[in-house]
Design brief:
seven-stranded mixed beta sheet, two-stranded antiparallel ribbon, 28 helices, about 5% strand, elongated, transmembrane, Peptidoglycan/LPS O-acetylase OafA/YrhL, contains acyltransferase and SGNH-hydrolase domains, transmembrane helix, hydrolase activity
């Protein structure tokens, strides 16, 4: 299942009202009204809606071959732009203005009842079926969906490229509704300005409206191409990259007089070409296609072609598009999409521990039909057509009430998040005390060497601060503060500034409690306990080949250290940064998620590695120019295929040997092992009284064998591992020293990483001393 859940729009009925609006005795002159505003019910539009929603549902069910089913959302955008523009142009033509309260009241009656109902059911389903560690994030998604801002929230979340086990939100599909609602805010205001211009200048309505649409479409299309190339994941969700698709539909409405002149044969040809273009998009586009960008022009223009030809088209294709079954599905398309995605998510993430089988996801999608039908007839239509809600004020009041209900459902789920006491895991190098913040700041370090004499006087070893001795008391009478995380595995009588590279963990009951009194970070916050480089965005996403260079350490350092690789080296960046700052090293980073700096595998194995390989070549050229004193790298990639390991070793050797020969010290940091089952934080959240149930027998990390063999193949490189303090006595621990070790997949919480600092520092310095 794609992590991106493209939903349909809900632009309202395809029935365009005939004649003057209420209160008007005469219709406007025929030449001032767009033909699209003079038409009646168009079954072909319902058929296009049916095609769009069925393609999206098939894609989410995982049906083979429908790799581009998510492009159905582009179809809905065009249809929405066409219908809304047609309605608004008719209103201007007949009244000379746009009534914003009336417009928003209609939108509220059409969209909010079903959307709020699904939000309520989704909150309940999440509480019943999903892990408690998901509640907080989903509650935030529901709240953002209730106010139609969730697309921006999702765009921000897509920067979390380190999330091995990240999963889709059950309300992720509300992003397109948010895009449309934001369009509905901008477009009526712009058409109101158009109406004023027309009234004062007596210019024709349709050309002025066309210019207004072009002012939206052209910048949005340009930005869509640029932003998609630069950051495809967030570009998928943001409104600014999608407005041009809605504007295309509006332009079709404005140019209606032109396509009304088409002959039936030409119109039919346009419909056939449009449907062929949509079919090609559904099966030829794939999740790896950068989207929207210029590629989205294919389904967008195909939909526009089908719209243009739809009025006058004849023949079997047109008949099929407007047939009763297609019209029925199209009429339910809004409800179908609202219901089907949470059902797929609950099946995939709640009922099945791993990816649900095809039959189960298909059953989930089919279950959306009776729910959509019931919701449509029992909730949507009664509220939409209620005479009591027809007055604008009452409709807007209903909208406010439904928004409050949606926010309330989010609040109820938020209150169900379990509270876990956390400790003030503070110490030298901590950015801030307390639990990790959603922004990704660490909870602090526990056990790092002090940066100043003042800190050495005030801070206890490995976290916490000693209480000041009272008058007449000896300071030595104060009990020692506990050591947290990996520092708790150090010998109690060993000062932190005397740690050497060969230090070994000492297992005690205090270091490995069965039921810790405090736990930092809380399991519900683990996924936000991120490394230093996260917020600045120094690690590039999986897709794309853009290279970003970031600097850390001492900006005026006399020596240069390059850090490159994937998220497995990125997780150690807080420690590397502080060591470099204290040791006269300027750090330059080149990081890309799920992409090792390796010269062979990507080029020889699979096409999907082409961007990674291109990125790696850029890194190699930068490093060649820099001629660094030190290079630090790591990766989780083990190699694939029968000769994958040999390829990876050869690729690392190709990159490392020239550096070693040029005098660069190359340090390779070991990969960290990962759990074999559910995420560690999910297990711990369910086993707070016996967290050792979440431990597992240690095995080599995915990348360990390749990294060690590559180091052995390149004399002069050095291998650095911390896994003995993550998996002491060959058992990986979910909690060490009251600190949660793992966030997502095989990635460590930043809080735990901070506690490893004295060991990491000692071993890094030893590796650099040993390197030639």
């Amino acid at each position: 299942m794609s992590a991106v859940a493209p939903p349909p729009s809900a632009s309202g009925s395809t029935r365009l009202q005939l004649g003057p609006t209420a209160g008007q005795d005469q219709p406007a002159p025929a030449d001032s009204r767009p033909p699209s505003a003079r038409g009646g019910f168009r079954p072909d539009i319902e058929g296009l809606r049916a095609l769009a929603v069925l393609s999206v549902m098939a894609y989410h069910a995982g049906l083979p071959g429908i790799t581009g089913g998510f492009t159905g959302v582009d179809v809905f955008f065009v249809l929405s732009g066409f219908l809304i523009t047609s309605h608004l142009l008719k209103e201007i033509a007949t009244t000379g203005t746009v009534s914003l309260p009336t417009f928003y009241a209609r939108r509220a009656r059409r969209l909010l009842p079903a959307a709020t109902l699904v939000l309520l059911v989704t909150a309940l389903g999440s509480w019943l079926l999903l892990p408690v560690t998901r509640f907080k994030e989903i509650a935030g998604d529901i709240a953002a969906s209730a106010v139609y801002l969730v697309n921006w929230r999702l765009a921000g979340r897509t920067t979390d490229y380190l999330a091995e086990d990240s999963v889709a939100s059950p309300v992720q599909h509300y992003w397109s509704l948010a895009v449309e609602e934001q369009f509905y805010v901008v477009w009526p205001l712009l058409l109101l300005v158009v109406a004023l211009v027309v009234r004062r200048t007596r210019l024709p309505l349709l050309p002025v409206a066309t210019v207004g649409l072009l002012l939206i479409a052209v910048p949005s299309l340009v930005w869509s191409v640029v932003h998609t190339a630069d950051a495809p994941e967030p570009a998928y969700f943001v409104t600014t990259t999608r407005l041009w698709e809605l504007a295309i539909g509006g332009l079709v409405a404005c140019a209606g007089r032109l396509w009304e002149r088409l002959s039936p044969r030409s119109a039919t040809a346009l419909v056939v070409l449009g449907l062929a273009g949509l079919a090609a998009s559904f099966v030829l586009v794939g999740p790896s296609t950068p989207w929207p960008g210029i590629a989205a022009a294919a389904p967008t223009l195909a939909t526009a072609a089908a719209l243009v030809g739809g009025v006058r088209a004849r023949g079997p294709v047109s008949t099929l598009l407007g047939s009763a079954p297609m019209v029925w599905v199209g009429g339910l398309s809004y409800s179908l999409y609202l219901w089907h995605w949470p059902l797929v998510v609950f099946t995939d993430q709640g009922i099945f521990d791993e990816r649900a089988p095809l039959w189960a996801t298909c059953a989930a999608v089919l279950a959306a039909f009776p729910l959509a039908w019931a919701g449509h007839h029992l909730v949507e239509n009664p509220l939409r057509f209620s005479p009591r809600l027809r007055p604008t004020g009452r409709s807007l009041g209903m909208a406010a009430a439904l928004a409050v209900i949606g926010l309330g459902s989010a609040g109820m789920l938020w209150r169900a998040v379990p509270h876990v006491p956390t400790a003030q895991v503070t110490g030298p190098g901590a950015e801030s005390p307390g639990s990790p913040s959603p922004g990704g700041e660490s909870a602090g370090t526990a056990g790092g060497p002090s940066d100043s004499p003042a800190e050495e006087d005030e801070a206890s070893p490995a976290g916490g601060t000693d209480s000041a001795a009272g008058p007449g008391e000896e300071s030595s009478s104060a009990p020692p503060e506990p050591r947290y995380g990996a520092a708790a595995l150090l010998p109690a009588d060993l000062p932190l500034d005397e740690i050497t590279a060969d230090v070994q963990p000492v297992l005690t009951e205090e270091a490995l409690p069965r039921a810790p009194q405090t736990l930092t970070p809380s399991p519900t916050e683990a996924t936000t306990d991120l490394p230093l480089t996260k917020e600045p965005g120094c690690i590039m996403p999986v897709n794309g080949e853009k290279l970003r260079e970031c600097e850390f350490g001492d900006p005026d350092g006399k020596r240069t250290m390059v850090v490159t690789g994937d998220s497995k080296i990125d997780q150690w960046m807080p420690l590397i940064d502080r060591w470099a700052a204290a040791n006269d090293h300027r750090v330059v980073t080149y990081l890309k998620s799920a992409c090792p700096w390796n010269d062979v595998l990507q080029a020889e194995d699979d096409e999907r590695w082409a961007e990674c390989h291109s990125w790696g070549q850029k890194v190699s050229r930068r490093i060649e120019r820099l001629q660094p004193d030190v290079l630090v790298t790591s990766s989780l990639m083990p190699g694939t295929g029968s000769d994958g390991t040999e390829k990876m070793i050869r690729g690392y050797r190709n990159n490392w040997e020239p550096l070693v020969e040029a005098g660069t010290k190359v340090v390779v940091v070991d990969d960290t092992p990962g759990p074999t089952g559910d995420p560690v934080y999910e297990c711990v959240a369910e086993q707070l009284d016996s967290v050792d149930e979440c431990d597992w027998e240690a095995d080599r990390a995915r990348g360990t064998d390749v990294l060690k063999a590559s180091v052995e193949a390149v004399p002069g490189t050095r291998f650095l591992t911390l896994n003995d303090f993550i998996c002491p006595e060959d058992r990986c621990r979910a909690v060490i020293g009251d600190v949660l070790t793992y966030r997502q997949g095989s990635h460590l919480t930043n809080t735990f990483v901070e506690t490893v600092e004295p060991i990491f520092t000692a071993r890094l310095e030893a590796a650099l001393e040993e390197a030639p």
